[in-house]
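Below is a filled-in request sheet from our internal design queue. Each sheet records the structural input a requester submitted and the sequence that came back. We keep these sheets so that new team members can see what a complete request looks like end to end.

REQUESTER: design group, bay 2
PRIORITY: normal
MODE: inverse folding
CHAIN LENGTH: 388
BACKBONE (tokenized):
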């Protein structure tokens, strides 16, 4: 096993071990993938302020997200089909998150169900909800999350219509996936993945199949799914959700100041500055570039989190410095899961944690609660090139 020092190390192992259609599903952005690239590259433009001769003993990354204790300001983001990156993927990722002390967010479009994950974990996890046309199904889904002890509901607002991801179309990545000859040959070349899938009964969208009206098997799922994302979603629908959910509510997909103001009015507990990982509106600005503007608009009226482009501990710290109380990463832990299962998720989290700790120390800071804009370089320093 190679030495793992970065999330990219896990990514390359996952690329070799996970069938292409599923690896690309998690990896791809929409259209030209410009927003996907900007999510990561805009973090690279932010510079940290090095300090010396400062007492850095007794450091702590511990904080809170929506009132919950977390070992560091990072949650595992909701990712559809996580259970296709590795057998029982959602269960394994949730267990790893629980052991590390960070939240795990289960997607509506997960392979393992709410009940599957609840049965195999001991602490509350979060559940991500898509608003769909079938209100009866949504109401029952919310109740199932409540009954399973989920402590927060993450309502995704930016998927009223599905952004086109070219790789998914070319790979036949539908719901359910198309088992073409090319796809089946690719799976055969990934024996570890294939054996894992043969050894589990969790291979369908278990939050939906057998729960949604008229969806009794995978063959009836595709037509149901294509009709369900609701283009009529409005701010009034959030009030309908709040009537049925009495725990923490987080709104995901805020990328505009006016939308942030509207989100505050809903009474939600937090918003996530997010462009859906660059998977929806290509050409939208990066999440981190909008973060300071949204923090300025909402102040302390609502907790602000960030999703998109988090690939390292430094990214988490930079988002924290710019006002995010918490961050989310999907691809980072998905690479770990695809590479090494539960151990890979743990490794991804440890890579991020270690980089956060060392970076915070070199910036002369002992507590994540104190890490702010004073730890960033406000203007780019002059370089040797300026004198040539």
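RETURNED SEQUENCE:
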């Amino acid at each position: 096993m190679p030495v793992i020092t970065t999330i990219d190390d896990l990514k390359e192992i996952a690329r070799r071990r996970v069938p292409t259609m599923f690896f690309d599903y998690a990896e791809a952005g929409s259209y030209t993938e410009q927003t996907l690239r900007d999510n990561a590259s805009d973090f690279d433009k932010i510079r940290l302020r090095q300090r010396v001769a400062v007492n850095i003993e007794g450091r702590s990354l511990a904080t809170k997200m929506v009132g919950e204790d977390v070992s560091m300001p990072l949650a595992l983001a909701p990712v559809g089909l996580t259970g296709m990156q590795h057998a029982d993927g959602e269960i394994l990722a949730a267990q790893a998150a629980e052991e590390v002390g960070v939240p795990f967010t289960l997607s509506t479009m997960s392979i393992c169900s709410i009940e599957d994950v609840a049965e195999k974990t001991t602490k509350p996890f979060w559940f991500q909800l898509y608003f769909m046309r079938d209100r009866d199904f949504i109401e029952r889904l919310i109740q199932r999350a409540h009954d399973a002890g989920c402590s927060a509901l993450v309502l995704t607002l930016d998927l009223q219509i599905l952004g086109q991801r070219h790789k998914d179309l070319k790979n036949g990545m539908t719901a359910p996936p198309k088992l073409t000859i090319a796809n089946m040959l690719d799976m055969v070349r990934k024996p570890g993945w294939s054996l894992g899938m043969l050894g589990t009964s969790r291979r369908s969208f278990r939050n939906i199949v057998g729960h949604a009206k008229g969806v009794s098997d995978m063959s009836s799922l595709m037509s149901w799914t294509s009709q369900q994302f609701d283009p009529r979603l409005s701010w009034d629908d959030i009030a309908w959700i709040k009537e049925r959910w009495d725990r923490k509510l987080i709104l995901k997909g805020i990328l505009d100041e006016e939308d942030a103001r509207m989100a505050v009015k809903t009474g939600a507990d937090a918003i996530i500055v997010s462009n859906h990982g660059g998977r929806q509106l290509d050409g939208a600005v990066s999440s981190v570039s909008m973060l300071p503007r949204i923090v300025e608009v909402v102040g302390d009226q609502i907790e602000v989190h960030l999703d998109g482009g988090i690939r390292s501990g430094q990214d988490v710290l930079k988002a924290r410095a710019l006002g995010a109380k918490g961050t989310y990463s999907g691809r980072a832990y998905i690479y770990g899961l695809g590479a090494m299962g539960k151990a890979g998720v743990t490794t991804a989290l440890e890579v991020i944690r270690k980089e956060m700790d060392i970076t915070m120390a070199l910036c002369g800071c002992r507590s994540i609660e104190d890490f702010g804009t004073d730890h960033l370089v406000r203007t780019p320093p002059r370089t040797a090139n300026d004198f040539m």
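SHEET NOTES:
- Residues 331-362 form the longest helix (32 residues).
- The chain has a mean pLDDT of 94.
FILED BY: M.R.
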